[in-house]
Amino acid sequence: MRLTILATIIVGFSQQCIAQSNATITALPQAYKSVLVNDLTNILYASQGLLALKASNLINSQSNDCTEFAANGICTQLGARYTELSSPKIATRSIVLNSGYQISNQWHMGAYIDAGHITSQPSYTNVTQKGKDPILGVYSVYKDKIWGAPYNFRVGANTGSTSIDVSTSSLGSLGSLSRNINIKAQSYLAILSTQIPVDPAVTIIPYLGTTYTTMNIDGSNNNSSRISNLPIIFNGVSTEIFALQLGLNSVYKLNDSILLAATAGIQHTLSSSISNMTASSLPALSGYTGKTVLANNVPTFMALAKYKTYKNQELTAKIIYRQEVYQRIGVTSYNLNYSIGF
What we know:
Layout: H1 2-19, H2 30-61, E1 74-85, E2 91-102, E3 107-119, E4 127-132, E5 135-146, E6 149-168, E7 178-194, E8 196-199, E9 202-217, E10 220-222, E11 232-234, E12 237-253, E13 258-274, E14 277-279, E15 288-290, E16 297-310, E17 313-323, E18 330-341
Antiparallel strand pairs: 1-2, 1-18, 2-3, 3-4, 3-5, 4-6, 5-6, 6-7, 7-9, 8-9, 9-12, 10-11, 12-13, 13-16, 14-15, 16-17, 17-18
Helix pairs in contact: 1-2
């Protein structure tokens, strides 16, 4: 039902775009009409995929941490990240720089920059994508004991902007269709966890927290399109999600150098909103309005391995899979980091 409504909105929206250019559908050859509507559909499909990709990158980045401290209480970390959306196929590659400062044995803070770049995938036969996807973030982690039980409290905030150029192949003598899509987003996290030792090598860590994410896609009048000089009108979209994060992390310390961990959790939406995709009514066409239904419960999984290469140096590999609330789109992220303490 959701996909039927979305398809109706997109096709109607595509026809509306052409009508707003003071031309009619029948003014274009049938072959061009079919390709144009298909390409507009793919561009709007890409916009929805970018929302899921951005939301996942923001939340996953909230797990960035630099904990390999030495005498001066400084940790530096260099890493790489590859994230791929299952459908539509959009991916980002990033270099991640992270630094932390240990204020006391119980408290450290840090900041990171995730310099992402969007890469084109063969999801669309006639649409190519390229752009940038940077994220800036800060975090603070405090650990102590209450009533004899250890706890860990983490807060974090990050912001990111995505700018991507989406373009189609040439539609014969009409030229190509292109659009620049801009997303501005922020996320905030507060999470509490505790450690439950099972034996000297195994620890169970349940966690509970909240995240708040906002995103905005700008609307645009793409006057640069050369399709019979038709300006293509796109509406802006905004979304807000306040969610509960809960799950269980299991840690196995193989020896003094190797640590393995696995996490399974649920993101439960407490409140959410997404603006309607609308097209105003014209005499020749009916108006369309619709609203994307956001999922309330989506899973998240993580596998992690740490290896202490030398004193105050550590190599970390991490894989995160999560479904996003936008049509339950799956997102997988691969991270490799190297930390040095000073």
